[in-house]
Design brief:
This is Peptidase C45 hydrolase domain-containing protein. InterPro entries: C45_proenzyme-like, Peptidase_C45, Peptidase_C45_hydrolase. This protein is of the alpha+beta class and about 350 residues long. The chain has a single domain, classed as Penicillin V Acylase, Chain A, CATH 3.60.60. It has ten helices and 14 strands. It is globular. It starts with a strand and ends in a 6-residue tail after the last strand.
Amino acid sequence: MAYKYVRIAGNRRQTGLALGKLARPLMATYLDQSRTWEALRPWRGHAFLDTLAQQAKAALPAIWEELEGLAEGLHMPVEDVLLWNCRGDLLHSTTDGCTSVALKAADGSRWIAHNEDGDPYLHGRCHLVDVALEDAPGYVSFYYPGSLPGHTFGANRAGLVQTINNLRLRQRHPGVPRMLMARAILDCATLDEALTLLREMPHSGGFHHTLGAAGDPRLVSAEVTPGAVSVLEIGTRYGHANHIVHADMGGVAQIITDSSRARQNRIEGIVDGWSGDTGRDDLLAALHDTQGELPILRTAPDDPDDENTLATAVFEIQENEVTLRVYDRKAKADIVLDVMSDTE
């Protein structure tokens, strides 16, 4: 299995503390082997990092409290934990990849599916965390050691679903760090609330968000960068890799890796062939596709972006229900979870 399933409950600091304790046995070794951490260390003590901290505290005080708890649980300085959680805001390219697909089926159900691609070292070393909060809906999310949940794939008890794709932007800008923003989305009760947060919050880095919600017929693709947010309502089917593709975002300077270009072309070709009876097996097959030298399912030890697929998530969104199935590079789900009713 690519992860362990863990339940956590408490206030903001307590849940952050528990997440930190969960990651503590692995964290030092993980960072020591990480080229991303090596690239981040020169930013220690930089004034720009202080600016990001001030923006985060002012805009998202509850999430900042979780970050402080995370640092306490990790036995790390909060400045280093912030640095790690700002990696995509500071570096133009990191080992956070991913591919997402979305579908509105003929029977009215809605689907969002996602490959979580990251540092190959993390395969089998991550968690699926089920977090119950005192002042928010609570959520289920894939959890990288030492990173606030939300920047991978997740859904909350209000029925909001989010998957995140990395965007490699050639700019740095003061604002709220993108991983704290992604975590905050999982506190939103509705899709409209999530979109308002994305549109109104000052952004430091950039992400692609695929969003849906129980009881809401829409599926949404949102490309977020400093100074611009593009929201596209998905018609019937959609695929997105790790670079900006919305027509109205063409002026944003970015890095497009060979893998991202290949996966974007391939996933668009696959979803264009879907018909009215497409369902869960088709989404899973798309994300487990191995065609080409740089396939959607990434298992190569010499992947040019230093990324491998760590887990595949398939969300089925109904009127009053969200079902999450998580797979580890195979056809049978490791876990099936009814997110809104808190049952496996």
